[in-house]
Amino acid sequence: MSLRSLNFRLVGALALVFLLLLSACGTSGNSDSSYSGSFKGQLTVASKLDIESQLLAKMYTLLLRKEGFQINEKPALGNSTIIFQAITYDSIDLYPEFTGTGLNRLHIPSTYNPLKDYQMVKDDFKKKYKLTWLDPTLLLNDGYTFCTMKENAQMLGLVSISDIVPKVSQLTLTTPSDATPFVDGLKRVYKITTRSFKSVKTIDYALGFEAVKNGKAQITVCYSTDANVPQSGFIFLKDDKNGFPPSHPAPLVRSNILQRYPDISRILNPLAPRLTTDVSIQLQIQVTQKKNEGASVFRAVTLVATDFLKREGLL
Protein backbone atom coordinates (compact mmCIF):
# COMPACT_ATOMS: atom_id res chain seq x y z
CA MET A 1 0.00 0.00 0.00
CA SER A 2 1.64 3.52 -0.92
CA LEU A 3 1.49 6.01 2.11
CA ARG A 4 1.46 3.18 4.58
CA SER A 5 4.16 2.46 7.15
CA LEU A 6 5.86 5.86 6.81
CA ASN A 7 7.79 7.67 9.57
CA PHE A 8 9.80 4.71 10.84
CA ARG A 9 13.17 6.44 10.95
CA LEU A 10 14.12 5.07 14.36
CA VAL A 11 14.56 1.58 12.95
CA GLY A 12 17.72 2.45 11.01
CA ALA A 13 20.18 0.57 13.19
CA LEU A 14 17.90 -2.43 13.55
CA ALA A 15 17.24 -2.40 9.83
CA LEU A 16 20.96 -2.61 9.11
CA VAL A 17 21.30 -5.70 11.33
CA PHE A 18 18.21 -7.13 9.68
CA LEU A 19 19.66 -6.58 6.22
CA LEU A 20 22.90 -8.31 7.12
CA LEU A 21 20.88 -11.30 8.27
CA LEU A 22 18.74 -11.09 5.15
CA SER A 23 21.76 -11.28 2.88
CA ALA A 24 22.91 -14.44 4.59
CA CYS A 25 19.55 -16.19 4.69
CA GLY A 26 17.31 -17.80 2.16
CA THR A 27 13.60 -17.27 1.73
CA SER A 28 12.37 -19.81 4.29
CA GLY A 29 10.62 -21.90 1.70
CA ASN A 30 9.31 -19.02 -0.40
CA SER A 31 11.81 -19.45 -3.24
CA ASP A 32 10.80 -21.32 -6.37
CA SER A 33 13.59 -22.12 -8.77
CA SER A 34 11.23 -23.31 -11.51
CA TYR A 35 11.14 -21.24 -14.68
CA SER A 36 10.12 -21.46 -18.29
CA GLY A 37 12.45 -21.25 -21.29
CA SER A 38 16.16 -20.46 -21.08
CA PHE A 39 17.67 -19.22 -17.83
CA LYS A 40 18.05 -15.41 -17.91
CA GLY A 41 19.31 -14.66 -14.46
CA GLN A 42 18.42 -14.60 -10.77
CA LEU A 43 16.46 -11.79 -9.10
CA THR A 44 15.24 -11.12 -5.57
CA VAL A 45 11.71 -9.70 -5.48
CA ALA A 46 10.30 -8.35 -2.20
CA SER A 47 7.13 -6.75 -0.90
CA LYS A 48 5.92 -4.71 2.03
CA LEU A 49 3.67 -6.18 4.71
CA ASP A 50 0.23 -5.46 3.28
CA ILE A 51 -1.65 -7.87 1.01
CA GLU A 52 -1.85 -5.43 -1.89
CA SER A 53 1.94 -5.13 -1.97
CA GLN A 54 2.31 -8.90 -1.70
CA LEU A 55 -0.06 -9.39 -4.65
CA LEU A 56 1.86 -6.95 -6.82
CA ALA A 57 5.20 -8.56 -5.96
CA LYS A 58 3.78 -12.00 -6.67
CA MET A 59 2.61 -10.84 -10.11
CA TYR A 60 6.08 -9.48 -10.82
CA THR A 61 7.51 -12.81 -9.72
CA LEU A 62 5.20 -14.89 -11.90
CA LEU A 63 5.76 -12.75 -15.00
CA LEU A 64 9.53 -12.75 -14.60
CA ARG A 65 9.63 -16.46 -13.88
CA LYS A 66 7.60 -17.15 -17.01
CA GLU A 67 10.31 -15.40 -19.05
CA GLY A 68 13.15 -17.46 -17.60
CA PHE A 69 14.24 -15.62 -14.47
CA GLN A 70 14.89 -17.54 -11.28
CA ILE A 71 13.19 -15.60 -8.48
CA ASN A 72 14.17 -15.44 -4.84
CA GLU A 73 11.03 -14.22 -3.08
CA LYS A 74 10.94 -12.04 0.03
CA PRO A 75 7.21 -11.52 0.67
CA ALA A 76 6.12 -9.25 3.54
CA LEU A 77 9.75 -8.21 4.09
CA GLY A 78 8.91 -5.21 6.22
CA ASN A 79 7.58 -1.67 6.31
CA SER A 80 8.56 1.14 3.95
CA THR A 81 11.78 1.95 5.80
CA ILE A 82 13.04 -1.62 5.98
CA ILE A 83 12.30 -2.49 2.36
CA PHE A 84 13.90 0.72 1.12
CA GLN A 85 16.99 -0.06 3.20
CA ALA A 86 17.01 -3.53 1.62
CA ILE A 87 17.03 -2.27 -1.96
CA THR A 88 19.60 0.46 -1.29
CA TYR A 89 21.88 -2.12 0.39
CA ASP A 90 21.47 -4.37 -2.67
CA SER A 91 19.79 -7.11 -0.60
CA ILE A 92 16.83 -7.13 -2.99
CA ASP A 93 16.49 -6.19 -6.66
CA LEU A 94 12.95 -4.86 -7.00
CA TYR A 95 9.65 -4.36 -5.18
CA PRO A 96 6.36 -2.51 -5.72
CA GLU A 97 6.53 1.07 -4.48
CA PHE A 98 4.01 3.91 -4.53
CA THR A 99 4.51 7.41 -5.83
CA GLY A 100 3.11 8.93 -2.65
CA THR A 101 5.69 7.08 -0.56
CA GLY A 102 8.39 8.15 -3.01
CA LEU A 103 7.47 11.81 -2.68
CA ASN A 104 7.49 11.53 1.11
CA ARG A 105 10.96 10.01 1.04
CA LEU A 106 12.15 12.90 -1.11
CA HIS A 107 10.31 15.44 1.08
CA ILE A 108 8.56 16.77 -2.00
CA PRO A 109 4.86 17.76 -1.89
CA SER A 110 2.47 16.28 -4.42
CA THR A 111 1.53 18.29 -7.48
CA TYR A 112 -1.84 16.44 -7.43
CA ASN A 113 -1.05 15.47 -11.00
CA PRO A 114 -0.29 11.71 -11.17
CA LEU A 115 2.04 11.95 -14.17
CA LYS A 116 3.99 14.90 -12.76
CA ASP A 117 4.34 13.17 -9.39
CA TYR A 118 5.55 10.02 -11.11
CA GLN A 119 8.09 11.91 -13.21
CA MET A 120 9.48 13.66 -10.12
CA VAL A 121 10.05 10.44 -8.20
CA LYS A 122 11.39 8.72 -11.31
CA ASP A 123 13.95 11.45 -12.00
CA ASP A 124 15.04 12.00 -8.40
CA PHE A 125 15.25 8.33 -7.40
CA LYS A 126 17.45 7.60 -10.39
CA LYS A 127 19.80 10.47 -9.55
CA LYS A 128 19.82 10.12 -5.78
CA TYR A 129 19.44 6.39 -5.19
CA LYS A 130 20.25 4.74 -8.56
CA LEU A 131 16.77 3.21 -8.55
CA THR A 132 14.46 3.13 -11.57
CA TRP A 133 10.68 3.35 -11.56
CA LEU A 134 9.01 1.32 -14.31
CA ASP A 135 5.56 2.19 -15.73
CA PRO A 136 3.05 3.38 -13.10
CA THR A 137 -0.36 1.81 -12.58
CA LEU A 138 -2.32 5.04 -12.98
CA LEU A 139 -5.75 3.41 -12.67
CA LEU A 140 -4.86 2.07 -9.21
CA ASN A 141 -4.76 4.80 -6.60
CA ASP A 142 -3.80 3.83 -3.06
CA GLY A 143 -3.99 7.21 -1.40
CA TYR A 144 -6.05 8.49 1.48
CA THR A 145 -9.78 9.15 1.38
CA PHE A 146 -12.70 9.26 3.82
CA CYS A 147 -14.85 6.29 4.81
CA THR A 148 -18.01 5.83 6.80
CA MET A 149 -20.47 3.08 7.63
CA LYS A 150 -23.18 2.42 5.05
CA GLU A 151 -25.83 3.35 7.61
CA ASN A 152 -24.18 6.71 8.28
CA ALA A 153 -23.86 7.40 4.56
CA GLN A 154 -27.56 6.72 4.00
CA MET A 155 -28.66 8.70 7.06
CA LEU A 156 -26.44 11.71 6.30
CA GLY A 157 -26.74 11.55 2.52
CA LEU A 158 -23.01 11.06 1.96
CA VAL A 159 -21.63 9.76 -1.33
CA SER A 160 -18.64 12.04 -1.91
CA ILE A 161 -16.35 14.30 0.08
CA SER A 162 -18.27 17.27 -1.31
CA ASP A 163 -21.32 15.96 0.57
CA ILE A 164 -19.39 16.33 3.84
CA VAL A 165 -18.68 20.03 3.37
CA PRO A 166 -22.07 21.50 4.39
CA LYS A 167 -22.28 19.09 7.37
CA VAL A 168 -18.63 19.15 8.45
CA SER A 169 -19.18 21.19 11.64
CA GLN A 170 -21.55 18.45 12.88
CA LEU A 171 -19.17 15.55 12.22
CA THR A 172 -16.41 13.90 14.23
CA LEU A 173 -13.40 12.63 12.29
CA THR A 174 -10.83 10.00 13.26
CA THR A 175 -7.46 9.97 11.55
CA PRO A 176 -4.00 8.47 12.01
CA SER A 177 -1.44 11.14 12.83
CA ASP A 178 0.41 10.89 9.51
CA ALA A 179 -2.80 11.61 7.59
CA THR A 180 -3.56 14.89 9.36
CA PRO A 181 -1.52 17.07 6.93
CA PHE A 182 -3.37 15.51 4.00
CA VAL A 183 -6.76 16.25 5.57
CA ASP A 184 -5.65 19.85 6.09
CA GLY A 185 -4.62 19.85 2.43
CA LEU A 186 -8.28 19.46 1.47
CA LYS A 187 -8.55 23.23 1.92
CA ARG A 188 -7.11 23.50 -1.58
CA VAL A 189 -10.33 22.31 -3.27
CA TYR A 190 -12.93 21.59 -0.57
CA LYS A 191 -12.20 24.58 1.68
CA ILE A 192 -12.16 22.37 4.80
CA THR A 193 -9.39 21.33 7.23
CA THR A 194 -9.25 19.31 10.43
CA ARG A 195 -10.43 22.45 12.25
CA SER A 196 -13.64 22.43 10.24
CA PHE A 197 -14.90 19.27 11.95
CA LYS A 198 -16.83 19.23 15.21
CA SER A 199 -13.90 17.31 16.65
CA VAL A 200 -10.94 15.26 15.43
CA LYS A 201 -9.60 12.18 17.18
CA THR A 202 -6.03 11.24 16.26
CA ILE A 203 -5.85 7.49 16.79
CA ASP A 204 -4.47 4.32 15.24
CA TYR A 205 -5.77 3.51 11.75
CA ALA A 206 -7.69 0.37 12.76
CA LEU A 207 -9.18 2.04 15.84
CA GLY A 208 -10.73 4.68 13.60
CA PHE A 209 -13.10 2.10 12.19
CA GLU A 210 -14.04 0.94 15.68
CA ALA A 211 -14.78 4.52 16.70
CA VAL A 212 -17.19 4.91 13.77
CA LYS A 213 -18.84 1.56 14.53
CA ASN A 214 -19.32 2.59 18.16
CA GLY A 215 -20.81 5.96 17.22
CA LYS A 216 -17.89 7.96 18.62
CA ALA A 217 -17.17 9.36 15.15
CA GLN A 218 -18.97 9.51 11.82
CA ILE A 219 -16.01 9.70 9.41
CA THR A 220 -12.60 8.05 9.39
CA VAL A 221 -9.57 8.39 7.14
CA CYS A 222 -8.87 5.23 5.16
CA TYR A 223 -6.75 3.94 2.31
CA SER A 224 -8.58 3.93 -1.01
CA THR A 225 -7.69 0.28 -1.71
CA ASP A 226 -8.29 -1.08 1.78
CA ALA A 227 -10.33 -4.24 1.21
CA ASN A 228 -11.43 -4.22 4.85
CA VAL A 229 -13.61 -1.21 4.08
CA PRO A 230 -16.30 -3.01 2.03
CA GLN A 231 -15.85 -6.18 4.09
CA SER A 232 -16.62 -4.28 7.31
CA GLY A 233 -19.82 -2.60 6.17
CA PHE A 234 -18.10 0.69 5.32
CA ILE A 235 -18.05 2.63 2.05
CA PHE A 236 -15.49 4.91 0.45
CA LEU A 237 -16.57 8.51 -0.02
CA LYS A 238 -15.60 9.55 -3.53
CA ASP A 239 -12.86 12.15 -3.68
CA ASP A 240 -14.77 13.99 -6.39
CA LYS A 241 -12.38 16.95 -6.54
CA ASN A 242 -9.12 15.01 -6.11
CA GLY A 243 -8.39 16.68 -2.82
CA PHE A 244 -6.11 13.94 -1.50
CA PRO A 245 -2.79 13.45 -3.30
CA PRO A 246 -2.61 10.40 -5.60
CA SER A 247 -0.39 7.41 -4.90
CA HIS A 248 0.16 4.91 -7.71
CA PRO A 249 2.25 1.72 -7.66
CA ALA A 250 5.10 0.81 -9.97
CA PRO A 251 7.97 -1.66 -9.90
CA LEU A 252 11.02 -0.04 -8.32
CA VAL A 253 14.21 -1.66 -9.66
CA ARG A 254 17.90 -1.20 -8.96
CA SER A 255 19.23 0.63 -12.02
CA ASN A 256 22.28 -1.60 -12.38
CA ILE A 257 20.01 -4.66 -12.42
CA LEU A 258 17.86 -3.07 -15.13
CA GLN A 259 20.97 -2.35 -17.15
CA ARG A 260 22.02 -5.98 -16.82
CA TYR A 261 18.52 -7.31 -17.59
CA PRO A 262 16.69 -4.71 -19.72
CA ASP A 263 13.94 -7.27 -20.48
CA ILE A 264 12.54 -6.59 -17.00
CA SER A 265 10.80 -3.47 -18.34
CA ARG A 266 9.30 -5.33 -21.29
CA ILE A 267 8.05 -8.09 -19.00
CA LEU A 268 6.53 -5.99 -16.21
CA ASN A 269 5.23 -2.85 -17.95
CA PRO A 270 2.23 -4.59 -19.64
CA LEU A 271 0.79 -5.25 -16.18
CA ALA A 272 0.30 -1.54 -15.40
CA PRO A 273 -2.88 -0.87 -17.45
CA ARG A 274 -4.54 -4.10 -16.24
CA LEU A 275 -4.81 -3.06 -12.61
CA THR A 276 -7.35 -0.63 -11.14
CA THR A 277 -8.38 0.42 -7.65
CA ASP A 278 -11.49 -1.80 -7.81
CA VAL A 279 -9.48 -4.76 -9.13
CA SER A 280 -6.99 -4.41 -6.27
CA ILE A 281 -9.80 -4.42 -3.70
CA GLN A 282 -11.42 -7.49 -5.27
CA LEU A 283 -8.12 -9.39 -5.40
CA GLN A 284 -7.48 -8.63 -1.73
CA ILE A 285 -10.97 -9.91 -0.88
CA GLN A 286 -10.22 -13.11 -2.78
CA VAL A 287 -7.05 -13.57 -0.72
CA THR A 288 -9.10 -13.21 2.47
CA GLN A 289 -11.60 -15.79 1.21
CA LYS A 290 -8.85 -18.31 0.43
CA LYS A 291 -7.27 -17.72 3.84
CA ASN A 292 -10.66 -18.40 5.43
CA GLU A 293 -10.74 -21.67 3.50
CA GLY A 294 -7.48 -22.70 5.14
CA ALA A 295 -4.79 -21.48 2.74
CA SER A 296 -1.67 -19.77 4.09
CA VAL A 297 -1.18 -16.12 3.15
CA PHE A 298 1.64 -17.09 0.78
CA ARG A 299 -0.50 -19.76 -0.91
CA ALA A 300 -3.59 -17.52 -1.09
CA VAL A 301 -1.64 -14.65 -2.67
CA THR A 302 -0.05 -17.05 -5.16
CA LEU A 303 -3.40 -18.53 -6.21
CA VAL A 304 -5.14 -15.16 -6.60
CA ALA A 305 -2.25 -13.54 -8.49
CA THR A 306 -1.92 -16.55 -10.80
CA ASP A 307 -5.64 -16.61 -11.60
CA PHE A 308 -5.68 -12.89 -12.35
CA LEU A 309 -2.69 -13.02 -14.70
CA LYS A 310 -4.20 -15.99 -16.54
CA ARG A 311 -7.53 -14.18 -16.96
CA GLU A 312 -5.66 -11.19 -18.37
CA GLY A 313 -3.74 -13.39 -20.80
CA LEU A 314 -0.39 -12.47 -19.27
CA LEU A 315 0.44 -15.92 -17.96
Automatic annotation (TrEMBL):
<dbReference type="GO" id="GO:0043190">
    <property type="term" value="C:ATP-binding cassette (ABC) transporter complex"/>
</dbReference>
<dbReference type="Pfam" id="PF04069">
    <property type="entry name" value="OpuAC"/>
</dbReference>
<feature type="domain" description="ABC-type glycine betaine transport system substrate-binding">
    <location>
        <begin position="42"/>
        <end position="297"/>
    </location>
</feature>
<dbReference type="GO" id="GO:0022857">
    <property type="term" value="F:transmembrane transporter activity"/>
</dbReference>
<protein>
    <submittedName>
        <fullName>Substrate-binding region of ABC-type glycine betaine transport system</fullName>
    </submittedName>
</protein>
<dbReference type="InterPro" id="IPR007210">
    <property type="entry name" value="ABC_Gly_betaine_transp_sub-bd"/>
</dbReference>
